[in-house]
Specification:
By secondary structure, the protein is of the alpha+beta class. The chain contains 6 helices and 14 strands.
Amino acid sequence: MNGAEYSQIEMHEVALKYANTLKLLAQQTTSKLESCVMVESGLSGKTVSPVDQLGTFTTRTRTGRFEDTHIVDIARTRRWYEPVFKDGAYLIDNWDKIRMDVSPEDGVALAIMAAYKRDIDAEIMRAFYAANKTGKDATGSTAFDSDNVIAATAADSDILGKIDLAVAKLQQNDVDFENEEVFFVVPPAVERELKEAGYYVSSDYQNDKVLTGKKLSPYAGVNFIRYNFAAVNTGTTENPVNVYKCPFFCKSGMALGKWLDFQTKVSERDDLSYAKQIYAAYAIGATRTEEKKCLSIEFAA
């Protein structure tokens, strides 16, 4: 075996190990929101329906003998999501490695994984408030239901009062609250309000000291998910009002589809002085599955 052949085998082994490292990171490190929604993998096609939805079946009360059979038509509809393809590559030049006297591969792996996590979360957040594709062939459009918004000016303006309103709204929407996983996405500004709520932190109402750990304990069956997002300016130039629109939803009310799960390829670029190229790609899409299970709680801050 000559030196060139040995070098190619060595390069192949390094690339294989590095690609495996990236895949391992993908398995070990998840996004903030992925575990809070339904997930489908291995999808194909321009658009995919995560669920076929049936309307309500209603019965009648019979009033006599030999009545005509009561036929009930159940409305049907579909939800759709479509993929957003993401990819990118990073080059590592041997010249840079020699001059820096460091190997940047591990840092690159973390940076690529961070981008993957951000994109998953951003797609779920986008789809939560966006007009979703509906109908038999994805030609329809369903906007976020304005009736499912707990406004910043709601009568119960404190955070716990608004959570109670949201829970009551789910129940009014005929959601089986007791059998659902419910999540409330909160940015740092809203988390501060949560920690200042006496009911939540008082030992009179809690078995544990909820602020001693890193995680926020659930309230009334609602799980809190920390996620940093910008406020929306809903005021005027003279009187600006920053409002945080915080998703409040059941796990079965949101879906994430993966056409191409996280994939990587490490190769040698002979056109660029044999630099190492690290390429990553994935295709994802998200949608609401049921309007009744997706609410928004607003806070002015």
